[in-house]
């Protein structure tokens, strides 16, 4: 319960600070939190021992659901658009998961990437959806209320923080539930888990659905924040970015994805500003340093300090105690 209260308090603090900060900073935090939701989906699968290079599939579905709902169906409510993205992503994951739950290691990673690239190829060839250019997403409303053009970005920021706080609390409970503990057992020894009467394939399938849902939320919020979507949302480099952030933060805590996403956004923004032609090199150096000095991610700094309890000195025994 203390962790959930801390997550809620952190979300309130970020929302308050972002509301008072410049527009560029609140926009940066919006995108960082939206991507952190997708990274949470990656981390959930990493805890079961699977690395996905195709999480951009659901990120893209969430974004395009928001854009298509507003442009072709006349739906502008942000909550309806996000729910539509989550629903479609879960349906797609329910079908794809039947195949993916059978595979492990590099085969799982390559199959997820292949599915994501199929969607990318379909979108690139669809002139009705803007092909490689994509199309713009209309400004969302909130239960019928439409904010002013000046406050629209701020409202998306607050929505993103609220959704992120809710998702973080839910996934914190999930990771510490029986299902979450079973995922770690599957990562260590899948055969023994099966001997205990638990189906590893069913657990992996459920994890895949949960990861798809939270990733769609991230894609939908990104579309609402930027006001534009394009096929690059499904490209393999986008999935690689999510894996990068997951490694940067580590899998020790649900908050690690959000901390890492903010750090990643700050480093990339600084690198692009100072060295626009070699910013990828800067990110590569950061990842290399991380692997060498923090193989378990940034969150290992917090967990290391938390578990480093001071050693209490042992008082020498008195004469009477020794005699007794």
Automatic annotation (TrEMBL):
Q: Where in the cell is it found?
A: Cell membrane
Task: Report membrane topology.
Answer: Multi-pass membrane protein
Matching Pfam families: BPD_transp_2
The transmembrane segments are 27-44, 56-73, 79-100, 107-124, 155-174, 202-222, 242-267, 279-299
Keyword annotations from UniProtKB, A to Z:
Cell membrane, Membrane, Transmembrane, Transmembrane helix
Q: Looking at the keywords, is Membrane present? A: yes
Q: What is this protein called?
A: ABC transporter permease
Q: Which organism is it from?
A: Noviherbaspirillum denitrificans
């Amino acid at each position: 319960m203390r962790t959930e209260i801390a997550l809620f308090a952190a979300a309130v603090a970020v929302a308050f600070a972002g509301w008072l900060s410049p527009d560029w900073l609140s926009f940066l935090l919006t995108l960082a939190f939206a991507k952190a939701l997708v990274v949470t989906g990656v981390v959930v699968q990493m805890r079961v021992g699977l690395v996905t290079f195709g999480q951009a599939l659901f990120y893209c579905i969430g974004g395009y659901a928001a854009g298509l709902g507003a442009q072709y169906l006349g739906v502008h409510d942000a909550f309806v658009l996000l729910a539509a993205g989550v629903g479609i992503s879960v349906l797609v994951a329910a079908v794809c998961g039947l195949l993916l739950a059978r595979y492990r290691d590099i085969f799982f990673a390559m199959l997820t990437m292949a599915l994501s690239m199929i969607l990318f190829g379909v979108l690139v060839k669809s002139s009705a959806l803007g092909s490689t250019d994509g199309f713009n997403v209309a400004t969302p409303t909130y239960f019928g209320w439409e904010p002013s053009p000046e406050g629209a970005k701020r409202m998306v920021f607050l929505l993103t923080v609220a959704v992120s706080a809710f998702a973080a609390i839910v996934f914190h409970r999930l990771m510490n539930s029986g299902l979450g503990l079973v995922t770690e057992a599957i990562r260590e020894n899948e055969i023994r888990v099966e001997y205990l009467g638990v189906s590893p394939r069913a657990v992996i399938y459920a994890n895949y659905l949960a990861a798809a849902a939270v990733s769609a939320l991230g894609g939908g919020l990104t579309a609402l924040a930027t006001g534009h979507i394009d096929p690059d949302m499904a490209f393999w480099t986008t999935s690689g970015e999510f894996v990068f952030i997951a490694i940067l933060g580590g899998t020790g805590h649900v908050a690690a994805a959000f901390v890492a996403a903010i750090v990643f956004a700050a480093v990339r923004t600084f690198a692009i500003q100072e060295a626009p032609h070699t910013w990828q090199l800067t990110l590569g150096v950061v990842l290399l340093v991380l692997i060498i000095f923090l193989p378990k991610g940034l969150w290992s700094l917090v967990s290391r300090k938390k578990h480093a309890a001071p050693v209490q000195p042992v008082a020498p025994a008195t004469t009477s105690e020794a005699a007794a």
